[in-house]
Amino acid sequence: MNSPEQKGWFGRNWKWFVPVGCLSVVLMIVVFIAAIVYFAFGSIKSSEVYQQAITKTRSNAAVIREFGEPIEPGWLISGHINVSDSSGSADLSIPISGPKKSGTVYAVATKKMGKWEIYGLEVAIEGESKRINLLTPSTE
Q: Is the bond into 95 cis (omega within 30 degrees of 0)?
């Protein structure tokens, strides 16, 4: 009489082990990509150029009049910041929104001798061709 062949652990458990293993790999890849995105956006949001752009945007009377308060930056920032020792450049597009409208802050800056200088800072209002220049003094 032949006894039935005993299956090993994998032979008995492969139906749940394979999907769980594949999902674990996919989950690790998703977490890794999310961590990269989180740190990339975090480094941009902690940059001096970003902080100055948001501060000037929130304190500008024309922007407050158009967007209302509070003005909040969005999370999907685009652009780049390149820094090499005491020099660098930045070109950012920061989505913003207020109770009344939404728009985008455009900031262009250079870093020379360790100091950032913003030479282009405008707010584009969504759906309008008008832009608010944040580097010129407000007329109010």
A: no
**Helix, strand, or coil here: 53?**
helix
What confidence score (pLDDT) does residue 13 get? 85
Quickly list DSSP for 77-111.
Answer: -EEEEEEETTEEEEEEEEEEE-SS-EEEEEEEEEE
Of residues 49, 63, 52, the one with CA closest to residue 133? 63
Q: Minimal CA–CA distance to 131: which of 95, 104, 107?
A: 104
3-state SS, residue 126: coil
List, for residues 28-62, the tens digit of each pLDDT value: 999 999 999 888 888 889 899 999 999 999 999 99
Phi-psi region of 127 (alpha: psi -120 to 50; beta: other; left: phi over 0): left
pLDDT beyond 80 at 138: no
